Amino acid sequence: MWMWGVAAAGMATLAAWGVHTLVPAVPLLTAAVLLGIVVGQLPMLRPALAGPLGPGLSLAAKRLMRLGVVLLGLKLSLVDIAALGWLTISSTVLIVLLTFFGTLWLGRRVGLPGNQPLLIATGFAVCGASAIGAMSGVIKAKDRETATPVALVTLCGTLAIGVLPLLWHPLGLTDLKFGHWVGAGVHDVGQVVATAQIAGSAALAVAVVVKLTRVLMLAPLVAGVAVYERRRAPVPVTPAGDVIGTPAAVPAAMPAAVPAARRTPVLPLFVAGFLAMVLVRTFVPLPTAVLETADLVQTVLLAMALFGLGTAVRLTELVQTGGKALGVGLASWLLIALLALAAVQLS
């Protein structure tokens, strides 16, 4: 029954909320992922994770993640993004693209397996574990395949919370430029808030808007990968050369013997929902209470999803890769931090 795993994810979210309350510097979503990773390493709990809790944790990692991504759109207003100016917007888009393709190239170059290079690139370039969850839904990645990228982006994003503030004054950045740097270079929204808030409310506001501009890039990247997957997916044919799924290819006596070919949609439904929520936030004057409730629900959904993904992480497997995945993650973290710093210095 899926309800047991969902209930476990819910209780873990409450625990993560407690950690965040006691230690505000640790974002709630980061605490949820880390808690899942810790649980996943305990041998006595693995039978339960793979057994009665498995279906519910998988549902949380996939479906609740997508619902959370949809509600994430209500954080984005196109008016706020436009107020950044064309130079900041264009540099932010360029940072996302360079980080995405640079990380993807490096991951494939060092021989990371399967979809790991794509998922790591998406998480580091766009918005952390949420982006990884969105992309994994398009490419039909397994939870175990998604787990390592989630662990890496959580590790590096947490590292940024401690490292970037130490470089704030030595680099000669003003409060606003520090906020810009954090928004352009840190992965998860919660991690951005935790890092930028030390520089004041103005810096935090800039950081969040720049960060949400990166989040908006999730839709075109996911759609682009979906188009690529559609084009490269082989279309099954019969020995006579007919495409399976067409009337000529299915014998009348066997109407259900051959299933129709399933292809990746160009724009997944949850991404369309995300864009719809962006438009709603931009053009519909929603009451503050509605936005606060949506933010709470979105946070809970993503925390439950990230706990589910965290339980699939196996640190021993990460070590067995010879450090390749960790090396790619750290290189990507350094790349986006340097690109973001260059953009801030030139702005």
Walkthrough of the structure:
The structure is a single chain. The chain is mostly helical. The chain is 73% helix and 0% strand. It contains 17 helices and no strands. It has helices spanning 2-22, 28-40, 46-50, 54-72, 78-82, 86-109, 116-125, 128-139, 143-168, 175-185, 189-196, 201-216, 218-232, 269-283, 288-311, 315-320, 324-346. α10 (175-185) packs antiparallel against α11. 47% of the residues are buried.
Summarize the structure.
This protein is mainly alpha-helical and 347 residues long.
Shape label: globular
Stretches with pLDDT under 50, minimum 5 residues: 241-261
Structural class: mainly alpha
Cα gyration radius (Å): 21 Å
Instruction: List the total number of helices.
Output: 17
Q: Which percent bin holds the helix content?
A: over 70%
Q: Summarize the main sheet.
A: none
Percent strand: under 5%
Distance between the termini: 54 Å
Q: Tally of extended strands?
A: 0
Q: Which whole number gives the mean pLDDT?
A: 84
Order of SSEs: HHHHHHHHHHHHHHHHH
Features:
mainly alpha, single chain
Q: Helices, strands, pairings?
A:
Layout: H1 2-22, H2 28-40, H3 46-50, H4 54-72, H5 78-82, H6 86-109, H7 116-125, H8 128-139, H9 143-168, H10 175-185, H11 189-196, H12 201-216, H13 218-232, H14 269-283, H15 288-311, H16 315-320, H17 324-346
